[in-house]
Amino acid sequence: MLASAALCSATFSLLLITQDPVKTNERPPASEESIDRDLTRVKALLASGKATADEVMASPEWSHLREKPRFRRAIREAAQSPKTVIVPSDEPGTPLIVSGVVSDESAAPVAGAQVYVFQTSENGSYSTRGGNAANMGDSLNPRLFGYMITGTDGRYEFRTIRPGQYPTNGPPAHIHYEVTAPGFDKMVSEFMFEDDNRMSPETKEWAVESGFVVAAPEKGKDGVLRVTANWTLPK
What is the mean pLDDT of the chain? Predict the structure, then answer.
């Protein structure tokens, strides 16, 4: 089933989407020198404990670094919590909280699993450059991403915004997942929104058969959407 998920998602991954650049968090292009300087500052903050990975991810101050692989590596190495925020505080969009449990095939929770997620922005773009092709990996250097480490109960949670659909055509809006843990095979999958207007009965059947989680978020009294996505790691 996981192989089927990868194959089917790869089919969407070949679809080249013409997108407008992201308009949020605009600032003059940074020089490589200033980027290197800011990356050094971020690493120092994380190493000293003066800031957590969650605090760095939530701060608009570092938004210009988000598409840099070195920034993503720094966040991954510093991630220790089962909870994170993957959008800066000034990110436009409908607030969304995704939570769930990572389990093994016997339904026992998996502690210490690394959960990596990435998604499009509200306008359906992974990057500020636009013109993205959907891809199962992180070669797009997605702007909205996050890392979590599950606790003893296998739980994880992240705060984000509801992702946008690819412009013009493509699959329903979704969030990419990559979950790894010692002793288990890597899981690559997606969460899709059941209430998406591109989620036809045929698409839902395909998604479920591919091993994706399909569910509709519910809005709380605080106006925040919430949804649950549980995952099973194969041996």
Answer: 86
Domain positions in the chain: 2-20+80-232
pLDDT for residue 139:
46
pTM of the entire predicted model: 0.85
Q: Which amino acid is at 80?
A: Q
| Poorest-pLDDT segment among 14-18, 85-89, 158-162 | 14-18
Q: Say which CATH superfamily domain 2-20+80-232 falls into.
A: Aromatic compound dioxygenase (2.60.130.10)
